């Protein structure tokens, strides 16, 4: 019997590189929206940046759009907890990066919002909230290598700067589009072959009616 187990997908804790790529992609769009929830299309861009970073780290499976959303909410909650300690500095590794985007947030921003904004965010989460990529590691062309991209190593994790992550996301999308284009081309060729066979068979029936119907 075939196995009923689903593809494992991207499991386990987030690496520092993944988290940095997530915040770098999410933060500027969050500020452009005056610290309001991102649209689904913007979350897809964020997801693309995270999965480009995962590809650079050699990870096989991709993070889903919902996983990226949940990670941001967890980070914002932890940021508020660090602020509540009342210390001038924080030892939490992501505090400084998040402060650039959350420093002017209203009190209780991460944990409690007004009913109206909470409802709006919930609606935007649910709408089309599905994995933004097939859960496979993207193949790359010779001119589109994501490994050896000049990323810096932080501890044992390869961490790409924001500009590099954006570039990797663009490469990822181009490769996916190219892969889909090849599939469409193969389907078109198969259709043409079948059409030629049908036309050839019809032509034989017209030219040799005796052979078709028998003597």
Automatic annotation (TrEMBL):
Q: Which residues form the Myb/SANT-like DNA-binding domain?
A: 13-100
Name the domain of life.
Eukaryota
Q: Where is this region: Disordered?
A: 109-137
Which is one GO molecular function term here? transcription cis-regulatory region binding
Q: Which GO terms of the cellular component aspect does the record hold?
A: nucleus
- This one is known as Myb/SANT-like DNA-binding domain-containing protein
What is the species of this protein? Hordeum vulgare subsp. vulgare (Domesticated barley)
